[in-house]
Amino acid sequence: MSAPDVTIQVVTDDEAGELLTLRRAAFVTEAQIYGDPNIPPLTQTLGELRADLAAHGVITLGARSGHRLVGSVRVVLEDKKATLGRLAVAPDLQGKGIGTQLLLAVVPHLPDDTEEIWVFTGQDSVQNLAMYTKHGYEHQYDRTAGDLTYAYLRRILGDGDGDGEDEDDAAADGGNDPA
User: Fold this and answer.
1) Distance (Å, whole) CA 164 – CA 33
2) Which of 86, 123, 165, 174 could form a disulfide with 74 if both were Cys (CB 3.0 to 4.6 A apart)?
3) What does residue 86 show for φ and ψ, rounded to 5 degrees?
4) Over the chain, what is the mean pLDDT?
5) Cβ contacts of 44 within 8 Å, gap of 6 or more
6) Following CA atoms 43, 45, 48, 50 in sequence, which dihedral angle do they give, to the nearest 10 degrees?
7) Which of 34-38, 90-94, 130-134, 160-164 has the lowest mean pLDDT?
8) Does residue 52 carry a pLDDT above 60?
9) pLDDT score for 92
10) Among 24-38, 91-105, 147-161, the range of highest mean pLDDT
11) What secondary structure, in 3-state letters, does the chain show?
């Protein structure tokens, strides 16, 4: 199945309420996997989200299908490193390639001197781990925070990054990254 036609751009403060709604809907399945309704994407307030959108060194990309926000990813920039988190796709569109499109859209938004991209996701989030691995992310370590154990993966950037990798990724496009 081909990925829906989406437009990916930076999320603005005007879209904060819609982003909060998307994340809450998307991360319910992750909360169910871990048996924890208090994962950070589900407990973040609108005020906290707005502060995050305005924070220096944070970029949030949104995928739109028509007027609907159907996916998002948060990117934190620090020195020559980018850390991805809160990759979310609307529940009715998970597994259709939107997560992959967001993942691939990150590189063009990074500063030219970015050398590596990190991502963390729950170690039991099999679909997310498969998607990241497929796109060159390698498992580095696990870390436990409270009752959750996160897997940390890294991708070293080099020549040719951001040139439109394999787009037939719907099967490996998991859904939501609780980071």
Assistant:
1) 32
2) 86
3) 50, 40
4) 86
5) 20, 23, 52
6) 130
7) 160-164
8) yes
9) 94
10) 91-105
11) CCCCCCEEEECCHHHHHHHHHHHHHHHHHHHHHHCCCCCHHHHCCHHHHHHHHHCCCEEEEEEEECCEEEEEEEEEEECCEEEEEEEEECHHHCCCCHHHHHHHHCHHHCCCCCCEEEEEEECCCHHHHHHHHHCCCEEEEEEEECCEEEEEEEEECCCCCCCCCCCCCHHHCCCCCCC
* The pair of three-digit structure tokens given for residue 75, joined into one six-digit string: 């990117």
* CA-based nearest residue to 61, from 132, 23, 100, 9: 9
Side chain identity at 54, as an amino acid letter?
Answer: A
| Amino acid type, 46 | L
Is the pLDDT at 34 greater than 50? The verdict is yes
pTM value is 0.83
Q: Which two tokens stand for residue 51?
A: 């502060």
